[in-house]
Design goal:
single chain; 3 domains; 11-stranded mixed β-sheet; 36% helix
Length: 592
């Protein structure tokens, strides 16, 4: 049965019908339901009360449940909610106030009512109106089955969580609080695409600038935003926070902790089986912390189902963010700044047009069209899946490179490469339909991730997505450099010796150990520019003997028919060695 789009049992419907049958005023009804079930302001006004009395009489209709998963709405089942509360009970947590900022159908509230014996008040906020009704119905159902349980004051509020004044609530209530719940598992850009009004007013809340803000870093998880909202409002309150969130949220909260210094401690991440609990393939955990305490900067990870099983500790060590503090203590001596700048590969967002195969000497695009093009703008390209060996130079795919740097005009293609221009022009509508704002007000057929480094003949590259720790040496094909797509990160070199030395250092066991200590395997991209820029090649280089280096070079020469020697090693070391501070300062001195 459904009333106002919310599930209601026949037992609850009959009871409400009986209790409200002789009542004509919504305020009288509210008083009666508050006494019976602790729920304050059950009806907002007289009109709603009248609609409800009519609906309850004809509520035998069956209405399909809406699928709200695209809004990040994964309702916590009652068994999981009770398991979370039991875990909190085992930690001797017994709050007087429970706040659930996105209460959904109320399963956490039911679990709290059944377990916490000192409750004075419960506040649940929910933007989806049918869920507010279902929460109220579920509370009534609970008290029908458990008439002797304590009845705290319960407020179920239909409101946008981003507009609610949580600071006022924190100031009003001074006793022990528990912030509990499961905020949406969705990003702000996803909700924006759905025209949702459940969004914070400022989407770039981490204050990323310029290019970062429009190419991904400005996108954030709604659950993360709500978590930090709660920490900001209640960090000085006595109590705890326990949220079911994506693992990326917990990582990002800990990443920001070094800057924000939230007054939280005893920080834990308890991993859950999301497939089992929510039938989704998303890595998620219970995020738990104590409020109003000296700030801590590490988080201990456990198994939710076996909380005594410690997995690892991650967070901040000596001003560095790491994924495993134990691993880091053995490999962190190479943490620093890479002397070369890591770059991301080509981005064009139009693979069906821009990526080509070569069949019997002809180019064929992703639409299976045979294409005649001049060779000058055609370059081989590697994707993440192509970086499987230490040395690669035979691409499966080719791509059209329309610019040598970002923003460069492309009108000269028409004069110099008429066949290529004709091909691009025939698909101009698809280029114009690319959604990313990075192409806005840019020349026709623009690409990104392009610069002088793209045309370096030798490259060392790694997949951002794959969980392997393999760095591939990229050799030119027929004297033309090979490009990489934007799932890859690369360093460009003008001579093969520097490229080989770098590949040897990056493929060493020491580098792998270090990367294992700072990367998160459940991240969308295991490797990012920020991660790779922490590999200090000089600190690595001074740890290896020339004998080791010569053995590695011999292996590459023999296996891949290279002709590299150690003759330029000293020049390489001088290049990657950090400049002394005095020498750097002299660059800015003024002659007298």
């Amino acid at each position: 049965m459904k009333v106002f789009g919310a599930n209601i049992s026949r037992k609850v419907a009959d009871l409400l019908s009986e209790k409200l049958s002789c009542i004509t005023n919504f305020e009288t009804a509210n008083e009666k339901l508050s006494v019976a079930f602790g729920i304050n302001s059950f009806f907002v006004n007289q009109e709603e009360f009248g609609h409800f009395k009519n609906a309850i009489v004809i509520s035998d209709q069956v209405v399909a449940e809406p699928d709200r998963a695209e809004y990040g709405d994964f309702q916590t089942n009652l068994n999981l909610a009770k398991s979370v509360v039991k875990l909190l009970n085992d930690k001797k947590i017994n709050p007087q106030l429970v706040i659930e900022p996105t209460c959904g159908k109320g399963n956490f509230i039911i679990a709290a009512l059944s377990s916490f014996k000192r409750l004075d008040k419960i506040v649940g906020i929910e933007i989806y109106k049918p869920y507010t009704w279902e929460t109220k119905f579920n509370i009534i159902e609970f008290y029908i089955s458990n008439p002797t349980e304590v009845k705290p004051g319960i407020e179920i509020i239909h409101f946008n969580v981003f507009d609610f004044e949580f600071n006022d609530l924190a100031a009003e209530f001074k006793n022990e609080v528990l912030i509990l719940g499961n905020p949406p598992w969705v990003t702000n850009s996803k909700l924006s695409s759905l025209d949702s009004n459940n969004l914070p007013q400022k989407s770039n809340y981490k204050k990323h600038n310029g290019f970062d803000a429009i190419t991904g870093k400005g996108n954030f998880d709604i659950g993360e935003y709500i978590t930090t909202m709660m920490l900001g409002a209640f960090q000085k309150s006595k109590g705890h926070l326990a949220f079911l969130v994506k693992n990326s949220v917990i990582k990002n909260v800990m990443l920001e902790q070094h800057r924000c210094n939230y007054m939280i401690s005893g920080i834990e991440k308890l991993t859950i089986d999301s497939k089992k609990e929510f039938d989704v393939s998303v890595e998620a955990s219970l995020f738990f912390c104590r409020l109003n305490s000296m700030p801590e900067y590490v988080c201990n990870e456990f198994d939710f189902y076996y909380p005594e099983k410690h997995i690892c500790e991650f967070g901040w060590v000596n001003g560095k963010f790491v994924s495993n503090t134990s691993f880091y203590h053995h490999s962190g001596d190479v943490d620093g700044i890479c002397p070369f700048e890591w770059r991301q590969g080509i981005k064009h967002d139009l693979s069906s047009v821009m990526e080509l195969g070569r069949v019997n000497g002809c180019f064929v695009n992703g639409k299976n069209e045979e294409v005649e093009l001049e060779e000058d703008l055609i370059f081989g390209i590697f994707k993440s899946s192509d970086l499987k060996h230490k040395v690669v130079n035979l691409p499966r795919k080719f791509t059209i490179i329309t610019q040598k740097k970002i923003g460069q005009e492309t009108f000269n293609i028409k004069q110099k490469y008429p066949q290529t221009f004709k091909y691009l022009q025939s698909h101009k509508q698809l280029f114009d339909q690319r959604k990313s704002s990075i192409y806005k007000n840019k020349p026709d057929y623009s690409i990104f991730g392009i610069g002088d480094y793209s045309f370096s003949p030798y490259k060392v590259a790694i997949s951002g997505f794959y969980k392997t720790f393999l760095f591939s040496l990229i050799l030119p094909l027929e004297e033309k450099p090979i490009m990489l797509d934007d799932t890859c990160y690369l360093l460009g070199f003008d001579n093969i010796e520097f490229a080989v030395y770098t590949a040897i250092l990056l493929n060493s066991g020491k580098t792998k150990d270090f990367l294992q200590s700072i990367t998160f395997f459940d991240a969308k991209r295991t490797f990012t520019k920020d991660i790779l820029m922490r590999i200090d090649l000089y600190k690595l280089a001074i740890q290896f003997s020339e004998l080791f280096l010569q053995q590695e070079i011999d292996s590459l020469n023999n296996n891949y028919n290279l002709h590299v020697s150690l003759d330029k090693w000293n020049d390489y070391v001088k290049t990657i060695k950090p400049k002394p501070v005095i020498e750097q300062m002299s660059l800015f001195s003024i002659e007298k």
